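Researcher: For the record, we're logging two predictions in this thread. I'll number them. Prediction 1 follows.
Model: Prediction 1, sequence and structure:
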Amino acid sequence: MTISNQSFKIAVLPGDGIGKEVMPACLEVLAAAISSVGAAPMTFEVHNAGAQYYSETGEALPSVTLDACKSSDAILFGAMGWPDIRFPDGTEIIPQLDLRMELGLFAGVRPIRWFPGLPRVLTDPRAEDIDFVLVREQTEGLFYARGRGEIVNDAEAYDTMQITRAGTERVAEFAFQLAAQRKRRGKSGTVTCVDKANVFSSMAFFRKIFDEVAARHPSLQRDHAYVDALALTMVKKPWTLDVLVTENMFGDILSDLAAGLIGGMGMAPSADIGEKYGLFQPAHGTAPDIAGKGIANPCAMLLSGAMMLDWLAAHHADEKLADAARMIEGAVEHTLSTKLAVPMEYGGTANCTEMTRSVINSLSAVRREVA
């Protein structure tokens, strides 16, 4: 087996709640998959951040942690936030938003795929073909108002949405590039602009710029959908969707709805991608109700780790990293489809440790498929 000459430093931010439980599971699976294919070795450096760290120190995202993220090849992020721990103004501790702004992580990538063995939430058998990606612009939109909101005389409140040409162009271009990659794998190559252009001038502007970017990609298809109509389509016929691109708040809401189509947040990985940096995290939160019990489903974190491997593979021309990503995805699918282990989230008995062990044991079953 040939080992890559490259090596990578990964900043690891477990965070709060079940983030501290699913992160060790992810690191263990990553190490096993990387070793199996002889991919580039990785050094995982754990750093502090989050609500519980804030309650102890008064810092939610220490400068040393931010600096470590900037100097690393990629960032693995668990989950952060805690209901009873807030800033003096009452808002939650959300370092992930600070990282998006600090590192320019403009594209929130949420793959939505049904895995055999999962509960079929929708009764239509075509629901087994759900496989689309939601791309959410993450540096502006309504989230631009965070920290800038205004309350006037305790009678009126205002939050301003920001849509810029530069921000919309780069996220739309990202979505079309992603659709081109998926088309090469047999998908339709369709990008749908999700907006509310019939009401808001900012959204009409978003759609206008989307169409300008679409014109640069004549081999791909463009589509448009109002956000409310798209929510209906997600429930009625999500198997028809390919790549969606939308504003920050719309994407925040739709991504949770999308996760519900495939069984819940425990199967929802995500990536926050910028021009230089990549951060990878499960879409779920810290789950205070089950934190500390060891029963969290680690699959979303494992699949986020696979997304990190794919991103590194593309940026460093290391196909073995992509092979390791396919192995993790295949091992998760094998575990679920054969019911080698069924997460408690879906009525099974497997806790976090048992799910992790089953996925690692399944790596050998899928090894020859990516050899």
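Researcher: Logged. Prediction 2.
Model: Prediction 2, sequence and structure:
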Amino acid sequence: MRERRRVGAYGMLRDGRGRVLLARGSETCPYPGVWQLPGGGVEHAEHPVRAAQREFARETGLAVTVGAIRAAVADVATYPDDDVAVHTDRLIFDVEATGGDLRPEPAGGIAELGWFGPDEAAAVPLMPFTAELLGLPVSPLPAGLPRALPPDPAPHPDRRLRFGAYGLVTDPAGRFLLTQIADGYPGAGRWHLPGGGTDHGEQPTTGLLRELVEEGGQLGRVVELLGVDNLHNPAALGPEGRPLDWHGVRVIYRVLVDVPTDAVVTESAGGSTARAGWFTRSETADLPLTGIAASAIGQAGG
């Protein structure tokens, strides 16, 4: 099957009784009759926070402010008739309503909106990611459900979307693990957070822990999701040898390495990581850091 990647941003809005707002797909959406958190696809170069606001307003009529990121999960849906497997990385944010009038948008794929407590939500068909976020058992979707392939933006030969998972990685002594970007890659020579692009069908945390072994030779454990970073570089020059319009969506986790070892790059020769190292906070002040690394270390406090 042909593989396709997309990123979606969704909002979790609760009312004064603790119920969550869900949207039921219309006949024009990929999963008609199935309920899910309001939200949808991130456009090229768009920040996921902006996408969550835009899609929430389009589907519900409500203006919202976006708070903390609650979860990042991935799933793959297959469309045998089209010979396509679509991997969706889904970012879920807490949101708060600030205005507007609640109403569904049938033309946009939403047939009905409703407020659900746990018992009510458990009684309707839910998208798996929504069930997981609500702490409910994940059940298969109804058999024979007609599914429409999500629209694919017009292909552009020089556009690239990359979803990655990165870690603010520390050891019991409070040192930071950083990786240096190899020559020939954007940001060459700068020190970066361990991590990288996830594979098709791979969960963000699984991809991060894999990259941690490949780039630093460490075994770690994910502690919490810290945030999401958006990078748009319309003229990134990388191994392809020509400028490309890159859009990177990157989730950042706090990771602990309980038994640190010497940092060793174990990925295949020719990778994007030149070397890795453990650094104290004071030592990081003298390093040329990428923006995402400088921000994460600065926000770590201490």
